[in-house]
Amino acid sequence: MVVTVLGASGRTGRQVVRLLVRQGHSVRAGVRNGRRGDAVAGLGATPVIADLTATQDELVDAFAGSDVVINTAGAADPDPAAVALIDRDGAITGIRAAERAAVRRFVQLSAQFADAPDQGDRLVRSILYAKQISDSVLRRSSLMWTVVRAATLTDEPATGRVSIASHLDAGRVPRLDVAAVIAACLTEPRTENRGFDIHTGPLPVAAALAALD
Ligand SMILES: NC(=O)c1ccc[n+]([C@@H]2O[C@H](COP(=O)([O-])OP(=O)(O)OC[C@H]3O[C@@H](n4cnc5c(N)ncnc54)[C@H](OP(=O)(O)O)[C@@H]3O)[C@@H](O)[C@H]2O)c1
Q1: What is the pTM of this model?
Q2: Distance 81 CA to ligand 1 centre (A)
Q3: Does ligand 1 lie within 6 Å of residue 86's CB atom?
Q4: Beta carbon of 71 within 6 Å of any ligand 1 atom
Q5: Which domains are seen in the chain, by residue range?
Q6: Residues 8, 52: contact at Cβ < 8 Å?
Q7: pLDDT tens for residues 26-77?
């Protein structure tokens, strides 16, 4: 499959790119601008400029020929205005552009509790509300969708073991394990038109996804 990864220079995005390349996909590593190309060099992917604050037309061009778009981008600044710009409005622009570019599937890395966003401090609340809105636009789009609501992300080594369900208690999960789940979604039909929470748990990734009802 031809897969475009948004936020490919990010900590989770880079791991998603790495895994998809290893699985034999043709991967386009979406970066905000040419200066960020270095961040994805050596991953085996083709860099493509895909800035979520660009126009919808520019993103349509960036997505042309892609079967799948995976959005792992998030606001670089810990500021509610930046979150609204990237995680809400930028994600929605990406979804609309994917529809116009005849992309088949869109996988969104969201956050646990985006489906119950009235909690946490001002920044957390802004992130959860932004993701609730963009997740809901994705669900109502014409795209085949998957929303991966990850618990608190860590840079710890992969465990290869996760819990996946419609709703989980709060938890933590290494970015590497989230990347493995996102990559596995592309070949697991149970993840089509589904949203789910994920954190570290007892099951290997494939088994956890296969157990989705
Ligand atoms: N932190 C948590 O505990 C947690 C929990 C659940 C979900 N999440 C979500 O998981 C996702 C990944 O998190 P992370 O910590 O791995 O991310 P990260 O390392 O902060 O990387 C974020 C990525 O988004 C890119 N980005 C920023 N603005 C952009 C724009 N205008 N257009 C396109 N890309 C843009 C960044 O590009 P540059 O490299 O150019 O800055 C970077 O590649 C985020 O959406 C985050 O909200 C986080």
Answers
A1: 0.98
A2: 15
A3: yes
A4: no
A5: 2-210 (3.40.50.720)
A6: no
A7: 999 999 999 988 999 999 999 999 999 999 999 999 999 999 999 999 999 9
The pairing of beta strand 203-204 with beta strand 161-165:
antiparallel
With tokens 């034999």, the residue in question is 24
pLDDT digits (tens, 9 = 90+) for 150-164: 999 999 999 999 999
